[in-house]
Design brief:
Layout (H helix, E strand, L loop, with lengths): L1 H30 L22 H20 L12 H29 L8 H25 L3 H26 L4 H26 L8 E3 L11 E3 L2 H36 L19 H15 L1
Antiparallel strand pairs: 1-2
Helix pairs in contact: 1-2, 1-6, 1-7, 2-3, 3-4, 4-5, 5-6, 5-7, 6-7
């Protein structure tokens, strides 16, 4: 139960962060497309100065909790291998180290924006560092998937690594060209997708109704660490992997729907949009009928 609650908490934090960034990014782009530039974060538009950085406070709190969770998980024992598992411990510590780096980056951003201790961080520097951290998360998730003894956990880690790689590429694009709205909206969407997949991972590993047929949780594993979910046959494993891939495609479609609905809602709120051809029109060029009439008469006289 604790593992499922952790996944729900992480999913809520990622989805809310991505959705908030998507709304603010779309709003800034629609207000002034020519002056648009990607920002590391968007403060609240009103309220006291400290409350305007509420997003960073919540982000730092979530990173602290997840870092503490990964650190504690690394010390848990794995009953399947009779004692503490070195592989499980090292992969958990690697995840905790990556989360700690994200925490340091968030603290640096908060200090640079709210105090004179640090100079303001340039957007290209922030996105460049974020790209490196997402790539580290991709490497850790890929390594965890390769050594994972749980069939479902390995597939979930592999998909999560792919989403982190996408976020890394988008951050790198924004570091090179911060005026690219598509990359900024894609980064926000990738955060939402990662959050939805974290929730799917928790459901697939800890809720019996979401475990594919032919796979099951082992009864001697209480904490849900590596090896807690097994598939009886190779065909069952392949079927479970195919189901997870199909569910991931459904999540991608859902994120695309969120993107389109958010863009439409923000545009309607700002009063931008409408049916083309009815909301505005272009003046057609004036046709000189007399000039054409003279040309026609000249042509008729020539033929005669």
């Amino acid at each position: 139960m604790a593992g499922l609650l952790y996944h729900v908490f992480s999913s809520s934090a990622l989805v809310s962060l991505g959705l908030y960034h998507l709304i603010c990014t779309t709003k800034n782009h629609l207000k002034s497309p020519r002056d648009y530039s990607a920002r590391p974060y968007h403060p609240l538009p009103c309220g006291p100065l400290r409350l305007r950085h509420l997003q960073l406070y919540l982000l730092i709190l979530c990173l602290l909790l997840t870092f503490a969770h990964q650190t504690l998980v690394s010390s848990e024992s794995d009953p399947l291998l009779k004692g503490r598992t070195p592989v499980h411990r090292f992969t958990s510590l690697q995840s905790a180290a990556v989360l700690f780096l994200f925490l340091v980056l968030s603290l640096a951003l908060l200090l640079s924006e709210s105090t004179p201790l640090l100079p303001p961080l340039p957007p290209d520097l922030f996105f460049g560092v974020a790209s490196a951290l997402f790539f580290l998360h991709y490497s850790v998730s890929s390594a965890s998937a390769s050594v994972q003894t749980s069939d479902l956990q390995a597939e979930c880690d592999r998909v999560s690594a792919g989403v982190s790689a996408l976020s890394s590429v988008l951050c790198l694009v924004l570091a090179c060209n911060p005026r690219l709205f598509v990359a900024d909206a894609g980064l926000a969407s990738s955060l939402c997708l990662q959050g939805l997949w974290v929730l799917q991972t928790g459901l697939s590993l800890h809720v019996d109704a979401f475990i594919p047929e032919g796979c099951h949780k082992l009864l001697d594993v209480v904490s849900g660490v590596e090896g807690s979910t097994k598939c009886d046959l190779e065909d069952s494993k392949l079927r479970a992997v195919a189901i997870l891939d199909l569910v991931f495609v459904v999540h991608v479609l859902f994120v695309l729907l969120i993107l389109m609905v958010t863009y439409t809602a923000v545009a309607k709120t700002l009063g931008i949009g409408g049916i083309r051809g009815f909301g505005s029109y272009e003046v057609l060029p004036t046709v000189d009928l007399n000039h054409n009439h003279i040309q026609m008469k000249a042509m008729s006289g020539t033929q005669a």
